Amino acid sequence: MKLIIQETPTEVADYVAKYVIDKINAAKPTAEKPYILGLPTGSSPVQVYQRLIEHHKAGTVSFKNVITFNMDEYVGLPEDHPQSYHSFMKHNLFDHIDINLANVNILNGNATDLQKECEEYEAKIKSVGGVDLFLGGIGTDGHIAFNEPGSSLSSTTRIKTLADDTIIANARFFDGDVKKVPRMALTVGVATVMAAKEVVIIITGAHKAFALYKAVEEEATGELRVKTVKYFKGLKSTW
Ligand SMILES: N[C@@H]1[C@@H](O)[C@H](O)[C@@H](COP(=O)(O)O)O[C@@H]1O
């Protein structure tokens, strides 16, 4: 693991965007041998996406032969809902770059068979040869994608009930109303992310300091147990 410390969120975004662009350009992707990029939502990647758009407009990177797989999506939220991850990706990135929309993969949280949707997504990642670079953020409890505390390290794409902390954190996107936040999501698993050739996690803000400290300096044991208990207790609460 490599820890890259930058002074400001803007410098983090500059660094990560340049890293992604250098990787895509070094791979010289073609239609036969595309570059496979895993992508997150949330506030953490927004500035990175802005930089990618700027670089694309300046002609320093093309996404023509890039295939993307997003990490997660809410269950039951219409695709065109402003807070769906489909909408997020469209507005924050895909509408502004030269990606072929047929190369964009985002889990369908409205599929009639959610289990099948997850299995097919995992299989599709494998069928293109796996993810070259998975970009991610983390929640304050250290979760990646929607792999809430207690998620198995061997987990793959599946349906997940959201932790109370995540619902509270994400209520800011739903008029501050926890009742409007979907209770469930489809998410790639921890093993799905770890199977990528490279993983880059963007962590900014004091509220993420504890999660970062745990990830870097300690084995996630004691605290994980506390969060795990909290998660399972949270499942029982009613809003
Ligand atoms: N499913 C997303 C995660 O993928 C994201 O990393 C996390 C942190 O979001 P933010 O970057 O806004 O802090 O929020 C949600 O839970």
From TrEMBL:
Enzyme class name: hydrolase
Entry keyword annotation includes Zinc-finger: no
PANTHER family documented for this protein: GLUCOSAMINE-6-PHOSPHATE ISOMERASE (PTHR11280:SF5)
Entries under CDD domains matching the protein: GlcN6P_deaminase
Catalysed reactions listed for this entry: alpha-D-glucosamine 6-phosphate + H2O = beta-D-fructose 6-phosphate + NH4(+)
Domain Glucosamine/galactosamine-6-phosphate isomerase: 8-230
Name of the protein in question: Glucosamine-6-phosphate isomerase
GO biological process, alphabetically ordered: carbohydrate metabolic process; glucosamine catabolic process; N-acetylglucosamine catabolic process; N-acetylneuraminate catabolic process
Family (UniProt): Belongs to the glucosamine/galactosamine-6-phosphate isomerase family.
InterPro entries, sorted: Glc/Gal-6P_isomerase, Glucosamine6P_isomerase, Glucosamine6P_isomerase_CS, NagB/RpiA_transferase-like
Keywords: Carbohydrate metabolism, Hydrolase
Enzyme Commission code: 3.5.99.6
Hydrolase in keyword set: yes
Recorded GO CC terms: cytoplasm
Domain of life: Eukaryota
GO MF term list: glucosamine-6-phosphate deaminase activity; identical protein binding
Species of origin: Planoprotostelium fungivorum
